[in-house]
Design goal:
Blueprint lengths: L1 H40 L6 H12 L5 H7 L4 H14 L2 E5 L7 E5 L1 H21 L5 H19 L1
Antiparallel strand pairs: 1-2
Helix pairs in contact: 1-5, 2-4, 2-5, 3-4
Amino acid sequence: MESQTRTSSSSGSGRAAETRRATTLMRRLLVGLKGRLDDELREQNVTSAQLRFLQEVKEHPGSSGAQMARAIYITPQSAQALMARAVERGWVERGTDPDNHRLVTVRLTPEGELLLAYADGVLARLSAEVWAGVSVAALRGMNAVIERGLQNLKD
């Protein structure tokens, strides 16, 4: 009985160590990829945060600043600052919601579309570098594990 308890306990601590390691590795990968992306986009004078904002505008044109903030996990004030800079740069244009004229909405301009297309190319190249030598089967397995973790966060 004592050996079963010891085995359970040691496998539990092994699991805890591996989950910490997985979390740390995911964080390092994301931070490293974000850093490389920011380095590559610096000459375009755009940050990954601005790209997240532009991508959200593309996927949900006509969204309000508050909706954008919720979607990309930033404060409404930060969303307003990103929106102002994007308007200033000519990447988006402001409008008003047809149902509620007090709501300010944003849509991508052709210049914003071009910037996103360029950034998508950069990200595709960086992703290919990061995952070089990893099989499609291994990527599918990793994706399944990450999706399960995300589902567990929702529950």
